[in-house]
């Protein structure tokens, strides 16, 4: 598996390896996150040719400081991946999530099979909704498990 890496003005965003994901899963104490990371790894192993669509992507400052992670939740036959992201609390409020999501969407749209990218956020997570809006996402009128769904098209 070759590593996929995106750079922005301030960030390095890259796919993790099987070993890195196993380490994150082993260290995770939140049962919900542990389950989500396990599902991501399972997707990677079941569809290794689509590794970057299931893998955890680490978000780091250019100096190597880890500040968060993101992922796509697979790539369906309609070419509509869902993105998820999180920035560690001490690094929030500096535009890093917006920068990372813009870079990830740009990367996704470099793939001819991708028609749009979706996201879902808790109805009370106004900061995440603002990130999506800044990245061109629009509400699509649907509710998902976590809350309202958003979409950005090519």
Fold and architecture overview:
The chain has 154 residues and is α+β, with helices and mostly antiparallel strands. It has a single domain, classed as 3-Layer(aba) Sandwich (Aminopeptidase). It has an 8-stranded mixed β-sheet with strand order 1-2-3-4-5-6-8-7. Strand 1 and strand 2 form a beta hairpin.
End-to-end Cα distance = 27 Å
CATH hierarchy: architecture: 3-Layer(aba) Sandwich
N-to-C order of helices and strands: EEHHHEEEHEHEE
Integer-rounded radius of gyration? 15 Å
Oligomer: single chain
Structural class: alpha+beta
CATH topology title: Aminopeptidase
Helix share bin: 25-40%
Overall residue-averaged pLDDT value:
95
Domain module tally: 1
The CATH first-level class comes to Alpha Beta
Q: Biggest sheet, open or closed, and with what strands and sense?
A: 8 strands, mixed
DSSP, total strands: 8
Counted by DSSP, the helix tally is: 5
Uncertain runs with pLDDT below 50, 5 residues or more? none
Shape: globular
CATH superfamily: Gcn5-related N-acetyltransferase (GNAT)
Strand content: 25-35%
Strand order of the largest sheet: 1-2-3-4-5-6-8-7
List keywords for this structure.
single chain; 154 residues; alpha+beta; Aminopeptidase; 5 helices; globular
Give a brief outline of the structure:
This protein is α+β, with helices and mostly antiparallel strands and 154 residues long. Strands 1-2-3-4-5-6-8-7 form an 8-stranded mixed β-sheet.
List the helices and strands and how they pair.
Layout: E1 5-7, E2 11-15, H1 18-27, H2 31-46, H3 51-54, E3 56-61, E4 66-72, E5 82-87, H4 96-109, E6 116-120, H5 126-134, E7 138-143, E8 148-153
Helix pairs in contact: 1-2
